[in-house]
Amino acid sequence: MIKLQYIFIFLFLFFTFNIYSQDTNLYQTWYLYQLEVDLEGVVWDIEDEQPNFLPSITINDDLTFDGVGACNGFYGYYTYNSSLNSLNPNDVVFTLSVCDTSEENNFEGSYFNYIEADTDHTITLTSYDDYDELRLENYPGYIAIYRSVSLSIAEKFINQIKVYPNPVQDKLNIDYKGSDFLTLNILDIRGALILENVTLSPTIDTSQLSKGLYFLEIKSDHGEMIVKFIKN
């Protein structure tokens, strides 16, 4: 009986270790560098596009993830397959705004189909002198390449904005160092528009929002970003 207990303990520790034994460099914000779709080849390359948005994904150490495409956000969680060194997405939720251009909508169609694909996303992590690179491949030919630093011109715009506190209760503060006009919208976790064209004053009254998860959509002539926040 004692030996059986040791066997159970060993198996528990073994599987626990394997669930969390992936490279800790995985846990960070990754900026999309290139997206390749089977039969179409490379459909998006940041060096060619130089978009005014910054597609990214943040993978946390509990394997929850969230990110943005062109004008919409998403979140979910991964399960880790140690034998394949792969991630499988679960319960992925997207906001449902219509982007400003057909190019942005087409990009999100490809990118979000890739993000939510219910299959193993094989991990390849490579470290270079100036950045880390993450390659996630689900079907042969369906590949997303991310880097730990961004080459996008939208990064300058994003670095000018600070949103706090998060979680929030009554007032959401927005510090913006730029001078151009901002358009602010708040969406719920289903992508439904809750508040439109919010006036930046520089606080947003969130006292009437129900508790839960929301997305703040911020747009200007120089870029777009989406910030996930929690109302307590």
TrEMBL record:
Keywords from the UniProt entry: Signal
Highest rank taxon of the organism: Bacteria
Gene3D superfamilies: 2.40.128.270
Ranges annotated as spanning the membrane: none
All copies of domain Secretion system C-terminal sorting, residue ranges: 163-230
Pfam families recorded: Por_Secre_tail
Keyword Signal assigned: yes
Keyword Signal: yes
UniProt protein name: T9SS type A sorting domain-containing protein
Species, as recorded: Winogradskyella marincola
Lineage: Bacteria, Pseudomonadati, Bacteroidota, Flavobacteriia, Flavobacteriales
